[in-house]
Design a protein that fits this description.
Rossmann fold; alpha/beta; GMP Synthetase, Chain A, domain 3; 11 helices; about 350 residues
């Protein structure tokens, strides 16, 4: 049986992975050792029923098919994605409430008065995209007509501008949310931030008109605290104090865009993820449902942009939201994923 199949596989000359299934327990380990005799290299010991060893199987597939799978470097970055993203322009949108200074900021970035601006909220009309070269990095900057307060404009214009903002967010990879110093975190700001997170984009918070605020020691640290309080879903998002009018803070802002983009593209090796999952469960075990503890089998990251994880477990529908938040916050902290949206899908492993 097994030997005939092994001979066929060897003669095919194709990459082969030897899997020893039903490897749970001591007898399983002995069976896995017997598989060496087939001469197909080291067997990957798994238990399909219990979801054990699947992280090792993912790694074996990556090793067997390096050209077909995304190589993951030690730093946790995907090598191919990294090369591609280093040469492609980073698509950036600047969004914010009316009169928060979006057009002034973009004029400052592009170094010319390219957009019609004025003191009246909502004076900018059209959304446009413009290329920018900054410190040998290419950017494509998109401006939006902005979100306007319903009381100040007719409803048709309001709907159009909100649609513009959504279009800008969907165009972008990194979204700069421009807040106004002294009036940050108004309801509209929070709604826009929520929209950016829901659309899965990288986010940088820029607090504009900083030159108009009385300079106090610890002001930036306080701002940082407020951001994490009001926007827990993007905890650790980079925040920069800027004055678009005076051109202050532009360099740190652009550095934050590049850093945010890198985090958004980050990939974590499967082995590291599963070591983390084991430790996270040991530190804070998942709750029991109807007297039976939920069992997490393994975790993998199928995609980045934003970092997206799939966690296989015994009762996906029974995992409480609080425990899901614990896992997301743990991923954010353990793998240095500040500010980026994180997607975590729970999947039930199929019974036999």
């Amino acid at each position: 049986g097994d030997r005939e199949f092994a001979d066929l596989v060897r003669r095919s000359g194709k990459p082969a992975i030897l899997i020893a299934n039903k490897s749970e327990g001591a007898s399983g380990a002995a069976g896995a050792l017997e598989a060496y005799a087939l001469g197909l290299g080291e067997p990957v010991a798994i238990s399909a029923e219990h979801g054990e060893g699947l992280a090792d199987l993912y790694d074996a597939v990556r090793e067997a098919l390096p050209d077909r799978t995304l190589p993951v470097s030690e730093s946790g970055e995907a090598a191919l994605a990294e090369q591609a993203s280093a040469t492609r322009p980073i698509r950036v949108a600047v969004v914010g409430r009316p009169n928060s200074g979006k057009s002034t900021l973009i004029n400052r970035l592009l170094g010319e008065e390219r957009l019609l601006t004025g003191p009246e909220p909502g004076i900018t009309r059209d959304a446009i995209a413009t290329d920018l070269d900054w410190q040998d990095r290419q950017f494509r900057i998109y401006d939006t007509a902005g979100l306007r307060r319903r009381s100040k404009v007719d409803e048709k214009l309001e709907k159009l501008s909100a649609a513009d903002a959504l279009r800008a967010i969907r165009f972008a990879e990194v979204v700069i949310l421009l807040l106004e110093a002294g009036h940050a975190f108004e309801e509209q700001d929070l709604r826009i931030a929520d929209l950016i997170e829901r659309e899965g984009r990288a986010i940088v918070l820029a607090v504009n008109k900083w030159d108009l605020v009385e300079r106090r020691a610890g002001a930036i640290a306080k701002l940082r605290e407020e951001i994490d309080h009001w926007l827990p879903q993007i905890k650790g998002a980079p925040a920069c104090a800027v004055s678009a009018l005076l051109g202050e803070g532009i360099e740190p802002l652009m550095q934050a865009v590049v850093a945010s983009y890198a985090v958004w593209n980050r990939r974590i090796p499967t082995n590291a993820l599963n070591r983390w999952l084991e430790a996270a469960q040991a530190a804070h075990p998942p709750p029991a449902v109807s007297g039976r503890r939920i069992k997490f089998n393994y975790i993998t990251q199928p995609k980045a942009r934003p970092p997206t994880f799939v966690l296989f477990c015994s009762r996906a529908d029974a995992v409480p939201d609080a425990y899901r938040r614990y896992l997301v916050n743990g991923l954010r902290e353990a793998f240095d994923l500040p500010g980026t949206p994180i997607r975590l899908t729970l999947r039930q492993k199929r019974g036999r």
